[in-house]
Amino acid sequence: MVTSPIPHHQSPVDPDDRRVALFSTEFAADPHRFYREMRRRYGALVPVDLAPGVPATLVIGYRTAIRILHDPEHFPADPRAWQQTIPAECPVLPVLEWRPNALRSSGIEHARYRQANTASIGEVDLHALHATVERLAAPLIDSFLGAATVELVEEYAFPLAFAVVNAMIGCPPEIGHEVAAGIAALFDGIDAEQGNVLLAAALARLIELKRAEPGDDIASRLLHHPSKLDDMELIHQLVVLYGAGIEPQQNLIVNTLLLMLTDDRFGGGILSGSLSTRDALDEVLFTDPPMANFCVTYPRQPILIDNVWLPAHQPVVISMAACNNDPAISAGEHIGNRSHLAWSAGPHACPARTAAYLIAQDAIDQLLDALPGMRLAVPAEKLTWRPGPFHRALSALPVVFPR
């Protein structure tokens, strides 16, 4: 890679000055078709828009992504120079803006926040977490056992992910509901600024509660970590934990259920399938990871990579979905293979992947044990995917089952 003092602007440049709109409903409906066309037209680096008038470079080559993710010196995660050029009403700004946390920091600050997060997450008792998922899943399943149909996003995956992350962090439901509403607004880009305000206020109340009544939970451990995070820093560590613990966890559960309900390798009655829930999770983490395009960095100066100049201070977004399916490294068979980028890589790799696997697997197994005859209520091609530049998320997953 080569850096240059010469200012460059919207690179890579399409000869027709067209950029792929990652926020469109067309992209959400069939992103893999877009990735194939991107690869044919551009190679590893693609000019995209994250929102109208918000350019970025999407990385769809696996080896290029690995180089970038392991090079925080040239590709720092701090967005402050970029966001000075972005209007306050930009729908993706609340997701990407600088926060004093590990996800949006570099260098010494990143190391400090990362240590606090990994230590607090590392003390989660996985045996107790397994019991927590079972305990929280049971009443949700019981609530629809008497019916013949259920919509699994709103009636199972979301409330379960929400309840589990609250339990891990130590947040009571009344505060957690406001947190969830704020997180949802950030990811969907609808009333995102208000969602940011709601989220910060709810987390400030949680910190005060944990200061008065500490417990064996992530929030209390962050509060008492030797890094001595101040209240604003504590709020923003929790923002990341909630952001990763609700929306992506919900999507991982739902996307895996969809695969198991539509792929004969896992189904045909589901419990008679030859492959396991863990196999299905690995397949989804390759093909339809819950955060399809993320891991955003901002070059400090124009930089040449793969014979393309990337401009300074513009987002470089890793497409985990496209990179995982790069023909240069993938033969299309993912069973037993965990070399995907769904958890990112390098210094910003997800520190909670073990817990995330456990939660998703337990959530799915609990549901399938209770409803082994479950099937889709509509043809798979009739399902709708929520538009948005970052996530891979179904709007709804309706199923039917024998009573």
Task: Give a quick summary of the entry.
This protein has about 400 residues and is α+β, with helices and mostly antiparallel strands.
Can you describe this structure?
The protein has a 5-stranded mixed sheet. It is of the alpha+beta class and 403 residues long. It is globular. Helix 8 packs across helix 13. About 2% of the residues have low confidence. Helix content is 48%, strand content 10%.
Mean pLDDT: 90
β content, as a range? 5-15%
Basic shape: globular
Strand order of the largest sheet: 2-3-4-9-6
Briefly note the structural class of the backbone: alpha+beta
Major sheet description: 5 strands, mixed
Distance between the termini: 61 Å
Radius of gyration: 21 Å
Q: Which fold name is given in CATH as the topology?
A: Cytochrome p450
Jot down its keywords:
alpha+beta; Cytochrome p450; globular; 16 helices; 403 residues; 5-stranded mixed beta sheet; 11 strands; 3-stranded antiparallel beta sheet
Secondary structure blueprint with pairings:
Elements (H helix, E strand, L loop, with lengths): L1 E2 L16 E2 L3 H5 L1 H12 L2 E7 L2 E6 L2 H8 L10 H4 L9 H4 L10 H16 L3 H19 L4 E3 H18 L3 H16 L3 H21 L5 H6 L7 H15 L1 H16 L14 H11 L5 E5 L5 E3 L2 E3 L5 E4 H5 L28 H18 L4 E2 L21 E3 L3
Parallel strand pairs: 2-3, 4-9
Antiparallel strand pairs: 1-7, 3-4, 5-11, 6-9, 7-8, 10-11
